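Attaching the record inline, Q. Sequence:
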Amino acid sequence: MAMRYILRRNKPEDLSSIKKDIPNLESQLEKAGDGYKRNLELSVTNMERINYQFQTRKSGTEWIWICPSVELVAENETGLFSLMEKFSVAPPAHLAHLKK
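Structure, as predicted:
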């Protein structure tokens, strides 16, 4: 059974940190349009992955891609905590006692 944790991004329109993980981000997202959504999965290990969840937003007269949330998926607490460290997020209080 996989453990999942969803992070809300403070600056959903800033994709620079995601471009470090996914260098060809623009070509994978294609041109933004009304109501578009995409989920791009990045495998970190065999049992850990990051799902970047994109949607479009109108900015002036143009549609742009934003990433309001990121889903972390791991097989166990150790893997989940490892992914959380990548995003500088502390474990939630109800799981913090499990961190070794």
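Residues 77-86 form the longest helix (10 residues). The chain has three helices and four strands.

More tomorrow.
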